[in-house]
Every structure is written in structure tokens, then in C-alpha cells.
Amino acid sequence: MIDSGYTFYTLQSRMLHLLASIHHRLGEVQARHLQHPEPELERAYRVSAVQATLALEGTMLGTLPVAELVDRPLHTGGQVSLEVLNTHHAMDLLPELDPFTAADLRRAHGTLMHGLALDAGHYRTGPMDVVYGEPEPIRVADAVHLPVQVDELLYLVENDEMPTLITSCVLHFGLVYLRPFTAGNGRMARLWQRQVLMRQWPVFAFLPVEAFIQRTEPAYYAALAYADRQGDCGGFIRYMMERIDEALAELLATPHPRPAANDRIAIFLKEQGGKVFRRQDYMRFFPELSGVSATRDLSQAVNEGRLERRGEKRNANYRMSVVPERNGVPQRA
Fold this sequence. Notes:
Blueprint: H1 13-31, H2 39-55, H3 63-71, H4 79-93, H5 102-112, E1 128-130, E2 139-141, H6 146-159, H7 164-178, H8 185-200, H9 209-215, H10 217-230, H11 234-253, H12 261-272, E3 277-278, H13 279-285, H14 291-303, E4 307-310, E5 317-320, E6 322-326, E7 329-332
Antiparallel strand pairs: 1-2, 3-5, 4-5, 6-7
């Protein structure tokens, strides 16, 4: 375990049970290729995540208005619409960022709180009352050595040998505990745990864990407060792992139609990252496909210009097509 005061936790048997359950579900997600959902489903999950994370901060906005802002991301005035757009843009920004770099943490905060906090993207410089859902603060967090503490937290989480599912929860609690910013610390903690998890499992790029936290909001703040008072965030880790397990269980229980040929090719190419492959690689990725279906998928993609083929029949190699340059940079089809 890691221990820098605010990152101490006791390992519990329940955590180990949840760890096994979550890893099993993640394996099933991978096997069913659910880590790259259909665009409509991905949009629905984004709306759910944005709506829930703002509701946890007291911004009660319905799903429909959030969906309209996500579909047409133009600021129409007012703090609420800006909160929605900022959260949406911050989630879009995550693939570009390093979760263990303080500069990227501040950059994400700058996007998340743009127009909502005067010092967006900068650490606070004065003390702050620590409140967890109740009006009475349980302590005062000072700002002495705050940048060093944040660097230490990121370093510990990156280098600890415990499973990422556990250390990501430690990071979540650590950011809430330190409260490095004058506003938006809860949002940043949830966003940054997402960032850590999605680097290892792409499903977390869209999985709306925030919605499952919102369903048990009092327990969320109670777990944070108890961890703060006890100096042991083990209970909070257990709480967060339960929500992650629930989110994955619901994803797997949702009916998902078998992807069409074009969708299969898109999913496969996203995983391949531009590498050369053969038909057997494609069939290993989609074991349910027959050889005839795999050949048909690849031939269709070649005819549409999405793939380039070298060689014939079983000796053929494929790669993603290169389309004409844009601004001097070759683009992939």
C-alpha cells in the first residue's frame, strides 16, 4: 500500500473480491468489443456522465438539456450551460493528457472551470474549509507546500505496485483531500480517476461511473468524510470499486446488436493503430466470424478505400489506407 498521510489505506477482503469481479467484467467487455461503443451509445453515456458529475456538485439539470448542449456545443449564456460545456470539453481533452503530470492536471482544470473560477488552471494560495455534503467543515486545508503534495500524490499513484483500480481510487480521494484548487476539486477528482483508468482500459473513456455515484450520493460523501476523519481511505476505495463494478455490470447487461461489417472494421482499425495485419489477425479479434465473413469484410473495406491490400488470398497483408495530405500531414482513412 502507499502511505503519505492522506493516501493511507487498509487492504480489505471486500476489495479483493471486487477486484476479481471487475477484472472478470473487463475481460468480458474486451471479448465482446464493448470498449468502443456505437456512436449513439457513446453519446448517451457522455450525457449521463456530464449530468451526474454536475448533479453531485449541486447543478440539477435534466438529461435533455445536457444532451442538447453536448450535441450543439455553443455557449448560450449562463453558468449552467458553461458548466455542461466545460465538462464535455474536458472529457474530450483527456486522451491528450498525462494523468501523472501536474501541468496536465492544471490544464484540465483550466478547461473544466473556464469562466467559472478566476484562477482556473492554478493552485489555490490560501486556506480552504473542508466540507463533505454538510454545512460544518471538518477541518481547514492550508496551501503550504500544496504543489509539492500534488506532485507527491501523482508520483505515488504512478509508481505504486498495487492494481490500478485501487490506486485510481486513492488518487480520487487524495485530490479531494488536498483540494488543490479554489473550486471544482470534486469534479477534477472524478475526471482524473477516469483519466487514469482509461489509459489501461478504453471502456472507462465513456463508462458513466459518475451516474452510479450519484445514485448513492449520500454514501459517496459519507465515505469521503469517514476516510478523512479516520486517516484511512480503505472504505472509500471499497465504495468506488462497488460503483465501478455496478457500471460494468450494467454495460454488460445492456443488449448490444452484433456490429455490422463497417463497424467491425472501424473497431479493429482503432485497436490496430495503423499496423499491418493479415486475415487471421482479424479473425482472432472477431472469433465468431467465419473465414468467408472475414474475407468479405476485408474485401469490402479495400473496395471502399479504407484498407490497402498487398498480396493475394491467404498471403494478403492489409493496412489502413493513407489519404491525401492535409496541411502537410498525411491522414489515415
